[in-house]
Amino acid sequence: MEKMGIAAQVYSVRDAAEKDFAGTMKALKECGYEGVELAGLYGLSPETVRDCLKEVGLEAVSAHVGLEPFQEDMEGTVQAYKTIGCSYIGIPGMSLECHYGGGKFEETCQFMEKLGACCAEYGITLMYHNHDYEFGKTEKGTYFLDELFDAVDARWLQTEQDTCWVNVGGENPVAYLEKYKGRCPVVHMKDFVRNKGEVEQVALGAGEQDNAAIVEKAEACGTRWLVVEQDDHPYGEPMDNMEKSARYLREILG
Predict the structure, then answer these.
(1) Predicted TM-score of the model (pTM)
(2) Helices (H), the chain
(3) What is the pLDDT of residues 235-247, one digit of tens each?
């Protein structure tokens, strides 16, 4: 079995990337990351981003892109991320109106199938990245998230499970990976603590997640990339936390 790669979600260090994209990519490489998942292009052209990552030695694993750019220019947007070299595109979330029970659910599902097919033509896999709100219950007692993955064929939409928000949403991340075995090529690794009812994100290994069990299950379920994402850094500096998380993951992977 191919060893899983370790990538960084650039959103985790967005302020630094905004000021100095190339320098931030170099720092992530020095932290031990093999790839990145983009969250915006910071005013740079796809070609510039591609060349920067190549020079630094990072793989362009994926990119988070909202539905709107694809609605405006589907093929052009997909082509841009193909130019960068991305193998995956993740929809980072969408309003409840676009989920089961919302007025745009059927329309959104049809659009995602069309988008997934377009991505496939360029050798890119489309994914949906969850937060905790998609674990709200429908009138049937099912999750909004499961309804989405049931409605859109797996050929066109894969999961990008954010293990923190799966946990916060009330599910066991290990069990939820097993549920979508073979449909989870990229997994978000994110740790957290609960402080007076609030979820605070921390470097991997400093919180309540059973990261070793998650990594083991991800590998068994066919995951190819583990992406470290830390949305906020209430404890420590962003790049320091990303370095700690990369080192921790490398220790688990051996």
Answers:
(1) 0.97
(2) 14-19, 21-31, 46-56, 67-72, 74-84, 105-121, 144-151, 163-168, 173-179, 211-220, 238-253
(3) 999 999 999 999 9
